[in-house]
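Risk register update: the risk of archive-format incompatibility is retired. Evidence:
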Amino acid sequence: MSLRTRLLILVIAAMLVPAILVGLRFAQNRTSEINAALANLAATANDIASDLDEKIQGTAQLHYGLARARDLDTRDKAACSAFLSEVREEYPQFTGILTIDPDGSLFCDSLRTNRSLDLRDRAYFKQALVSRDVVALEPVFGRLTGTSVLQIAYPVQSEAGTLKFILLASFNLRKFAEHHHKRLLAEKDILLVDRKGTVLVTSTGSGWSEPVGASIAGSDLFRFAATPDHAAFREVTDRGGRTQVWAVARSPSTRDAGLYIMVGRSKDGLVAAANRRLYEDMAMLAVASLLLLAGVWILATVSVGRQVGRLATMAKNLGLGDLSARIPPPHPRGELGGLMTLLNDTAESLQQQRAAIADLSQKLSQSQKMEAMGQLTGGVAHDFNNLLTVILGNSEHLADRLAGNKELHRIAGDIVTAAERGSDLTRSLLAFARKQPLRPREIDIAEKVLGMEQFLRRTLGEHVECSFALDSDLWLTSVDPSQLATSLLNLVLNARDAMPEGGKLTVEVRNTSLGESDLDVNGEPRPGDYVMVAVTDTGSGMTTEVASRAFEPFFTTKEVGKGTGLGLSMVYGFAQQSGGLVQMQSEPGQGSVVRLFFPRIATTLNQDLPQAERIVATDGSETILVVEDDDMVRAYVENELRALGYRVIATSNGPAALELLRRPGDIHLLFTDVVMPGGMFGPELARQATALRPELKVLFTSGYSQNPVKAPDGVGDALILTKPFRRQDLAAMLRSALSARSR
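Archived output:
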């Protein structure tokens, strides 16, 4: 065999391993491209759902503003319809905006149809009747237009809390889908289906075979869309033999509204690009290999044995998985040198990919760990706080019983301290997971502002002079400290933006009393005693027209991308929900001042607990129904209540408690856990219990709740005893609940 032939065989053998590696890389790239296309399909569905969520939130903000428009507070049907018609012209995404009387009859609408419609059978109307300050959603075909719409209803209530009317906006789902279909360059099909399986919208010119209004309730595609946490994708073959791959949006809000958003793409089109790329890559590899072999054959008479040996060594190292191996220079000219460079580049590329995969794996592992910890803390907190309740309560008993034995008394005290530290740890975990429920508290606003002083100064920067004027002996108010901090930060940031060249900002907190002549930004008097928080700047100020719209949602004078227009509207909503009000003064070139007023509360922080403890010692004789699913916690609470003098009836679930309430006999207070098995949580039990016994008082207890506890109508404010609790906390909260004013 000639040297030329031998060298050619050696070169072929040396190329075999890198060729296999490169081929595997090409195949891997094809798989990656297909997976990326599938992921893009799911991401597109979720993006559309996210966009719809934003439209719903924007509509809710519009409802919130329209609910306060005086033009709607009229019984002049023509004037009301004319006003809504003008509003609808500014918002073409709605097919119509209308108002519905509490009896379900259509009052006025933006289309000025002057029709009489009975809308009591609509689900959104029924839901809006029982909602408060939230929108009700239902995807339907509009009765006035026949177009598929998402009905967004908002109950408008008077200051007394009675329902005035329901404001309804019909969001055009067909135009919404057409917009996204164009955005996707018609490469993907969009399908909107309601919870009954009725097709609401399909993409124009798509390959989807079922028309609008048809039902797909019994199809595999609908079962895939309606089943939560199902497979990420589903292949569906239609009657014409056309196979499509579908992804469904997993947005909780749209699913709760009964709307399924699906995005599909032809399976052939999905893999065609990846196949084409694979064929091109393999062809390029084949051409390069042929050129290299031809060059080796021509130069076979040259002494290339050493170079072939270097190539063979390199190929062997790559075959063993050593991607750090390289052919060191100098490289010969011609094909052999090019092959060495190609092998080095291939090894470098593969090594970079390995490093990238390792880095991505580490980041994915960290992300999964953080997500798992966030999901774990909620469940752990509930059970852990139940255990801590038993440990803390029983250790207090041990400490009392062992007062004469110093050593054992100290050990019992250490158990109490350890349980309290465990409670602090649980709260820290919940805060980390962002699942700690926020509630208004009785606070000293000046103390809260003082704690933010350094942070606000750093936020303003050195070009703005900042001063604080905080009165002493401020009245107590009941506000959410976190929302107060956010509102103050929004006001300070707006003031800073109004002073780009520098200026002076003053934060003032003081007591004040408002009279009938003191009006809020809506022009309404709100007389009473308040704690005022004022932010004053020497910035550019606002014209009267701009100031009159400053608190409107999405209204902003900043450049695109520099502001959302939601800062002041959030401040306004927070003050209103806290029972307070907002005032603003501004003139061009003279700066602005925004004042927040929070109502004074009569009680003080250091009077509640002693008073509750004193009442417990003398008046603990009522009958208490305890509902707790944890056996140890229930036994501990029974013993504590009997020790406090109460008569106790205990059960482990809501249905059993309701059965006891239906029987004759005095029961003065329902003491129930919030989260319980069996499908009936504490708030629902309280609602049914107070319906059976209107005079029944309610006290909740919870170690953790995913959502804030909301008392049922008529119960008043929800009193919650957080686990773990000490004996005096239990006694104080019981007396507070039993002493509450009857409904």
